[in-house]
Specification:
One of its GO terms (molecular function) is glycosyltransferase activity. Its main location: membrane. By secondary structure, the protein is an alpha/beta fold. The protein is built from seven helices and eight strands. The protein has a single domain, classed as Spore Coat Polysaccharide Biosynthesis Protein SpsA, Chain A (Alpha-Beta Complex), CATH 3.90.550.10. Helices cover 32% and strands 25% of the residues. The protein is globular, with a radius of gyration of 16 Å. The two termini are 30 Å apart. Bound molecules: uridine-5'-diphosphate (UDP) and magnesium ion.
Length: 195
């Protein structure tokens, strides 16, 4: 595994966006643009940790180019395709933020929500989950912009199973460190939240 980006430079990073990427060369540009746009209206330091999960297209080359021109963009390069969960875990192991937001790079989860997550985090919540509320008629679903409503659920003290919750969430650093202690290298994001 290889890591690009100067770690010490990001020592004071508040938010880490962590995105696993498999054959996403066509999407990286719009993804980065969206994240930059969202953060441009927030007074918060951030990094984007992109994990190339053994892509067979030019994902890695494209990421390297972005990392060279923008020090907030870091690249973790996996030697082969390990699957999303392991790619995400690799990204979590290499991020520096005081809060961490894993996100898919296909923009199915609206990046705007990150700002709401951050304000909840600043209010003192350690985990902020984004919950999808599906429309009753799935056949009418269009793109995520129109097909998804959202609700933020603040959750840490009660143990209950969140429904329709994916990987899109904010974790405080101390929660991430606690999760790492479980030592599981796969599927912990969804599973361990239920324990
Ligand atoms: N992904 C990955 N490795 C894989 C498959 C997917 O890193 O082997 C990434 C992919 O690039 C995307 C995220 O994981 O950023 C979610 O993938 P996808 O949209 O295919 O999954 P779904 O939306 O069906 O959960
Ligand atoms: Mg997807």
């Amino acid at each position: 595994m290889e890591e690009l980006g100067r770690r010490d430079h990001n020592a004071g990073t508040e938010i880490s966006i962590v995105a696993p990427m498999y054959n996403e060369e066509a999407v990286i540009g719009i993804f980065v643009q969206e994240i930059r746009r969202v953060f441009s209206i927030a007074n918060v330091s951030y990094e984007i940790v992109c994990v190339n999960d053994g892509s067979t297209d030019n994902t890695y080359e494209v990421l390297k180019r972005y990392a060279l021109e923008d020090e907030r963009i870091k690249v973790v390069n996996l030697s082969r395709n390990f699957g999303k969960e392991i790619a995400l875990t690799a990204g979590l192991d290499h991020c520096n933020g005081r809060a961490i937001v894993p996100i898919d790079c296909d923009l199915q989860d609206p990046p705007e929500l990150i700002l709401d997550m951050i304000s909840k985090w600043r209010e003192g919540f350690d985990v902020v989950l984004a919950k999808r509320i599906d429309r009753s008629s799935d056949s009418l679903m269009k793109r995520w912009t129109s097909s998804m409503f959202y609700k933020l659920i603040d959750s840490i003290s009660d143990i209950h199973i969140p429904v329709n919750v994916g990987d899109f969430r904010l974790l405080d650093r101390k929660v991430l460190e606690a999760l790492k202690k479980y030592g599981e290298r796969s599927r912990f994001m969804k599973g361990l939240f239920l324990r």
